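User: Here's a chain of 190 residues. Predict its fold as tokens.
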Amino acid sequence: MRGAGLAAAWLLAASALVATPAAATLPFPAQIGGAFTLTDHTGAPRTERDPKGHPQLVFFGYATCEQICSVALPVMAEAAALAEAEGLALTPVMITVDPDRDTPAAMAQALARHHAGFVGLTGDQAALQHAYDLFGVESSVVFTDPVLGPIYAHGSFIYLLDGDGIVLSVLPPILTAERIVEILRARTAS
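Assistant: Prediction complete.
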């Protein structure tokens, strides 16, 4: 039921974004997101707020994922690079669903391959579960691959947050980087 509610809210937000320019400045019209504190890939505490006040693309996944993460993480990195080329700041962030393997060091190495500014977040089970609950994200081990280890089913949306951590939009990972930057411009225009 949670996924259906999120999908309906996403469709409502997408139609509002297309329908009226004024809707572009409103926060996302559903109760998604909120305050959390996790540990970043450098070992420092990090909240939902970007330390530099930049908008963020947040995705829940894991560094060794060869499924949806292999689509979402590169498109997030490409969107950040395109935004940067336009003079817009955009921070890509991955919150792990695999904290046993996604240590800060492992995430730093894996995410840097996508974009130098990619932030990886982890934490203890309670802190991570709190973040999952805020965003309606569920994950579970589907099976254990003899080579790759645990394979997770997990959320696939990318969340666009403002610098204060407020959800502005929920994006499917099938969008192009160009479209993500268009949405960024529209949702952060003053």
